[in-house]
Design goal:
70 residues, mainly alpha
Amino acid sequence: TMTEEEEEAYFREDGIRELKKEVRKQGILEGIMKIAKIMLKANEPVDKISKYTTLSIDEINKLQKEIKNK
């Protein structure tokens, strides 16, 4: 059995690990969005962008609107 302090340390470390995973996922998503924007600006077809980025057509259309509004 763990002491209360050991248990707190365990859960704190577990929380830090989960946070690191989430940060990595967010960074990857930001990179994918950046690539999609570059492809949109290069007039690549939406279905091709979806295929190579795994973003949905709806997500890509939203990005396209963001680009047009800038």
